[in-house]
Design a protein that fits this description.
The complex is a heterodimer of chains A (about 300) and B (about 425). With about 300 residues, chain A is α+β, with helices and mostly antiparallel strands. Chain A contains seven helices and twelve strands. The two termini of chain B are about 30 Å apart. Classes of the chains: A alpha+beta (about 300), B alpha+beta (about 425).
Chain lengths: ~300, ~425
């Protein structure tokens, strides 16, 4: 196994949990970090989560069904780390519904063959722990509150993901390949979790534009049909070509797209469909008029 | 804070469950369900099932609470904090040895809280008693013999002092393992680490028991312990083959051969047990092969109960029928009428109230015939193994000695219980 400079196994990841209504700190009524019990214990990569606008993020989550909540996902990336986040539902210590966000943070090597596997397994871990912790935190359990305050809810935040189930194994290879091809991406997320720090929406252009209109920092969306990220702002751009090095097509950093934003195929298809429908309407109206005259 | 409070059983069990839930990391163990108390440690422990989050699997757990200030002598003996610490260290060793010891795989062992509740999470098993009741057969017997015999012949010395259908289980893959970890000892050539013995003497050959108690050296004692272990494994295998045993006696010599014959055991089984009673170290793997070659029709258990034969094992035994004055002979005497209770008691098939009713009947019997040592032995067994009450056992032994002042066994028990 690989190890980083701090002796941490590269296959291991770190878990953090955010929810509300447990008296962990003086902000117990707010959506807050519960594992670890203090933001000081977050690692590089997780610390940015401390500055998330949590009230704005969790508000739409209350409206979602459990099934829809299960589809929410977010992947934040930088050159060396990733954070996978998922959402779930639990109750606070008084039995009121409360969202729960489970984040899994790990080291990232963009050139690694196991990159996709690692992200998909981390996603699997986040989903699994989301379910387990939702149940553990549900209801009035004084012992659980004491454990959260004492920091003994978990023995360790460090988990080995090698035995986890792969989640999103069809999606992550395509998403990560697309993420690798553009510079300026901070993360990809479903619209409701984009406020965690992702600037690319896993959804349609409409969802991306709606998210942007609601104040999110959205710079593009992942077009799942074409398996590519469609930029919506100038912040996303192809990586500059490295001079003097021949890059095969599709390699990380290789420029494969022409300048400018291409019109996606599916938009053209949609326009053609509209055109067809209009033609059919005209034809139908013409037939109706002729029939009326004939009857008259 | 974690010391057990005084009070009724249900109150104490409820308190222990709550105390455990407060201390057990809720993020590590979810879906905790407590099971009905049972076993020798039940007054000091809770057990149940849970989901081990880190290991991604269901587990069986047991939590033993430390003895507090003012706890009785027996409680202190079983659960004083330094013993729990030693148990933890032993369980960690068992965990690290893995399949080299035929014990249930341990997923986690830890001391919880400032006083140290010993929490052990294990792989869940199907208790062998259930499998025996459901479908006894040669294959099950062979599984026991093959799973437990290789370890005996390995370089790793281990002893289990309480092998019985309740204390063995089947893993998911069908492998037989021992599940009562408190009775499992490692590195016991000198026997000194063995602190608390289980009281199921009716499953042991008298010769082995005498060898352990009368040993003049550590190696003698160890040899007696190995004889007991081999016998216990073979007896467990026989139950797997012929169904639940009907133990009716104070040592195995009283009932095992009769029970085997009643169930149509062939000469392979009978010969093996004759040797075991005589203290011969038989090869259990060979026995496993031999029982597999017996024609099925010859080994079918008999449907009709056969009258017990007069044949007795050849070993040096304490033949109670010969030494004890018999209160009532014949099938309709009070002692005989209590046979079902005796058998059920030894099968752990009686509820607490049924054990109490049985004890009351025995007390009446003891009043009418105080010279019958069998009744006193039965009362002592209940006091020690089912009530876990040393003072009750001392009272039984004192009354037995008042009526039978020269009884060597009760004289010895008097010394043991004084300690």
């Amino acid at each position: 196994m690989e190890s980083d400079s701090q002796g941490v196994d590269m296959a291991n990841v770190f878990v953090s949990v955010w929810t509300k209504g447990h008296r962990v700190s003086r902000d117990s009524e707010e959506f807050q970090l519960v594992v670890p019990r203090s933001g000081d214990q977050l690692r590089v990569g997780e610390q940015e989560l401390g500055s998330v606008d949590w009230p704005a993020l969790i508000e739409p989550l209350y409206q979602l069904t459990d099934r829809d909540l299960g589809f929410e996902r977010c992947l934040l990336v930088d050159a060396e780390r990733f954070v996978v986040a998922v959402a779930g539902r639990t109750t606070d210590s008084r039995g009121r519904p409360a969202p729960i966000i489970v984040c899994v943070c790990g080291e990232l090597d963009w050139s690694s063959d196991v990159l996709v596997d690692r992200v998909a397994r981390s996603h699997g871990l986040a989903v699994r722990l989301g379910g387990e912790f939702s149940a553990a935190l549900r209801g009035e359990k004084k012992g659980v509150g004491r454990q959260l305050r004492a920091g003994s809810f978990l023995d360790s935040r460090e988990f080995d993901v090698s035995g986890e189930t792969l989640v999103g194994s069809a999606e992550w290879p395509r998403v990560l390949a697309a993420v690798r091809s553009l510079a300026g991406i901070t993360g990809v997320a479903t619209p409701n979790l984009a406020r965690l720090g992702a600037n690319v929406i896993l959804g349609t252009r409409h969802e991306a534009e709606t998210a942007a209109a609601r104040g999110g920092s959205v710079d593009g969306f992942f077009d799942s049909r074409r398996s590519e990220i469609v930029p919506l702002s100038g912040l996303l751009h192809p990586w500059p070509k490295k001079e003097g090095i021949d890059q095969p097509e599709g390699a990380p950093g290789a420029v494969t797209e022409p300048d400018g934003i291409p019109a996606p195929e599916h938009v053209e298809d949609a326009l053609l469909e509209v055109e067809d429908t209009a033609k059919q309407l005209v034809t139908a109206t013409f037939r109706l008029v002729r029939r009326l005259f004939w009857l008259g | 804070m974690e010391h057990i409070p005084s009070g009724g059983g249900a109150l104490v069990a409820g308190w222990m469950q709550q105390a455990l839930m407060d201390l057990l990391p809720a993020g590590e163990y979810t879906s905790v369900e407590f099971l009905q108390p049972g076993g020798m440690m039940s007054p000091y422990s809770v057990h149940g099932t849970a989901r081990a989050v880190r290991q991604q699997r269901e587990c069986y757990f047991k939590a033993i609470f430390p003895a507090g200030t003012g706890a009785g002598k027996r409680t202190e003996l079983l659960t004083r904090p330094d013993r729990l610490l030693r148990l933890k260290q032993r369980f960690e060793r068992v965990q690290s040895l893995g399949a080299r010891v035929p014990a249930v795989p341990i997923l986690d062992v830890r001391l919880l809280g400032s006083d140290g509740i010993l929490f052990t999470a294990m792989e869940p098993v199907r208790v062998l008693e259930e499998a025996i009741k459901a479908a006894p057969g040669v294959e099950l017997a062979q599984s026991v013999l093959t799973a437990l015999s290789p370890a005996l012949s390995s370089e790793l010395p281990w002893l289990h002092y309480d092998i019985c259908p309740n204390n063995a289980g089947l893993l998911e893959d069908g492998c037989v393992v021992l599940i009562d970890l408190e009775s499992l000892y490692l590195d016991v050539r000198d026997m000194s680490p063995i602190t608390v013995l289980a009281h199921k003497g009716f499953r042991d050959p008298a010769g082995a028991t005498a060898r352990i108690h009368n040993a003049t050296s550590a190696s003698d004692r160890h040899a007696g312990a190995i004889q007991k272990l081999l016998f216990n494994i073979a007896l467990l295998a026989a139950e797997c083959r012929f169904g639940p045993a009907s133990p009716d006696g104070f040592v195995a010599d009283d009932w095992v051969m009769d029970w085997l014959k009643e169930n149509g055991a062939d000469e392979v089984w009978l010969d093996a047990f004759r040797q075991l009673f005589a203290g011969v170290r038989i090869d259990l793997a060979e026995l496993s092969t031999a029982i597999g070659t017996v024609p099925a029709e010859a080994a079918e258990p008999r449907t009709e109960s056969k009258a017990p034969t007069k044949e007795r094992p050849q070993a040096t035994t304490t033949d109670l029928a010969a030494t004890a004055p018999v209160l009532v002979r014949g099938e309709n005497g009070p002692w005989e009428r209590l046979r079902t209770n005796r058998v059920d008691l030894r099968r752990d098939a009686l509820s607490h109230s049924e054990v109490e009713s049985y004890r009351a009947a025995l007390e009446l019997l003891a009043l009418s015939a105080p010279e019958d040592v069998r009744v006193w032995k039965e009362l002592r067994l209940i006091a020690l193994a089912y009530r876990h009450d040393n003072s009750m056992a001392r009272s039984v032994v004192a009354r037995a000695l008042a009526a039978n002042p020269n009884d060597q066994e009760f004289l010895r028990w008097s010394q043991i219980l004084k300690g």
